Amino acid sequence: MFVKRTSLRVRYAETDQMGVVYYGNYAQYFEVGRVEALRALGMSYREMEEGGVMLPVHKLELQYLKPALYDDLLTIETRITEMPSTRIRFHHEVFNESNDLLTKGLVELVFVNRSNRRPCRVPASFLEKIGSYF
Amino acid sequence: MFVKRTSLRVRYAETDQMGVVYYGNYAQYFEVGRVEALRALGMSYREMEEGGVMLPVHKLELQYLKPALYDDLLTIETRITEMPSTRIRFHHEVFNESNDLLTKGLVELVFVNRSNRRPCRVPASFLEKIGSYF
Amino acid sequence: MFVKRTSLRVRYAETDQMGVVYYGNYAQYFEVGRVEALRALGMSYREMEEGGVMLPVHKLELQYLKPALYDDLLTIETRITEMPSTRIRFHHEVFNESNDLLTKGLVELVFVNRSNRRPCRVPASFLEKIGSYF
Amino acid sequence: MFVKRTSLRVRYAETDQMGVVYYGNYAQYFEVGRVEALRALGMSYREMEEGGVMLPVHKLELQYLKPALYDDLLTIETRITEMPSTRIRFHHEVFNESNDLLTKGLVELVFVNRSNRRPCRVPASFLEKIGSYF
Question: Which is deepest, B113, B131, C11, D67, by most CB within 10 Å?
Fold first, then answer.
């Protein structure tokens, strides 16, 4: 298993008139967690894409337990619990500074060849880097 | 069962550099479908909130089948398939102009008292309007 | 001069915890006004881009007079007051249903060749369509 | 004069299909710069708002010189060049890691009483903290 924790601060733009983070914005928070998890593994999503492999999202599941508030310093905990195949799954949990679990969710992405937009195998360099965690 | 179809056009802002609608933006599209479904039932979410009842989201599930593209005229099909209790569930399907199913998902919301932010019953006026569909 | 009026409804996602539309979201509203103005002229921004010409924004100016609220049905009034050269300017005004002027602004865009990302002339088909208004 | 530099990384969600940061998203980047400038002065925008004073935006001006790209680590340089009165102006410049100036702009905000939404004076604690810079 691989785990990475990342912090970010809630922007005013991300709140709504209920005074909490809008429910759709967690998809962005998960994206930040995912990208930093890959970076911690020695990979850059940007370079992977420049190298011809994209990772469109196939599935998103989200549960909202407590609201995140403006200016909260959130921690996004990102886990990869299984060896990726043609798909990769990220498990995310979002905590506030009091360590309350606010949101948890799952994002499943598919490796896709950038030129023909068809599913492809996990890049070998990726497997190499992540292999030691499983 | 209650069904409502709503249209919206994809904005440039909603695309990402993969050239498709960013995965997090469907939460907004579902919101539009939800609000127009309520309006078609003779209810305004704005008035409900002004009347002291809020509907925070409790759960979101999304599956991405095909991408939506810039300037696509999308149809959001919104279904309420069960009588709401302390919760209400909306089932959404998003189609493009060729009638391809692009995305489908589920949003579960909880009726909450605006002053104490605790779960509350469905407003009676709401039940009355939706009752005839079940 | 060319004028086009377009309507859109404020989404919950677009509000912030001040209970009004977040100031950055007017850029999206202006984009909607701009795209619909082009469509009314018989042009599609999507086709222009597919044809190899992009229109990145060079300048944005915005004044906020009154707030737009959740669920407001806004009218975006978009004006082209000068014949475009290598640049094109759109003047926007946003009104609510009481016809209050909420926001006004200016967006200046540059015609750019998609392949080399360098400034280019206005496409001839564009000039032809817009010419009769000046 | 007061200056504060803040960093942030471009999110995938913030790009558009031109492959660059969408023009409207700089308003959020400026907000981040502004909030961190206030924090560096010993003030929290969150506390100011909880204390009954809001800061809605009155004017925004933005010039786009070069595009910001996905995953760029940007620096937002925020300057307050004049003592605030009923208004406060923030001057922002955005740089990438090669120190290219990408965007510059100005945001003017108005101090407003939260309860009656009318313009009010700068809070005394604010003037005290910022006073030494002018």
Answer: C11
Q: Minimal CA–CA distance to D18: which of C26, C44, B13?
A: B13
Question: Region B102-106: what's the mean pLDDT?
Answer: 98
Residue D8's DSSP bridge partners are: D74
**Residue of D63, D18, A50, D17 lying closest to C117 (CA atoms):** D18
Q: Which residues of chain A neighbour B102 with C-beta distances below 8 Å? A: none
Q: Identify residues of B whose CB sits under 8 angstroms from chain D CBs.
A: 12-13, 15-20, 22, 24, 70
Domain map (residue ranges) of chain D: 2-131
**What is the DSSP secondary structure assignment for residue D12, as one 8-state letter?**
G
CATH top-level class of C2-131: alpha beta
Q: Give the residue among B22, B70, A46 at the shortest CA–CA distance from D13.
A: B22
Q: Are B75 and B6 in contact (CB under 8 A)?
A: yes
pTM over 0.90: yes
Which residues on chain D are in Cβ contact (under 8 Å) with B18?
17
Residue with tokens 């905590």: A95
Q: What are the Cα distances from residue C27, in Å, to A102, C108, C111, C113, D26?
A: 31, 12, 19, 23, 10
How far is B110 from A23, CA to CA, in rounded Å?
13
Mean pLDDT of C77-98: 96
| E-only strand ranges, B39-122 | 53-54, 57-64, 73-80, 87-95, 101-110, 112-113
At residue B96, the 3 state secondary structure works out as: coil
Q: What are the b/e assignments for B27-42, b being 16+ CB within 10 Å?
A: bbbbbbbbbbbbbebe
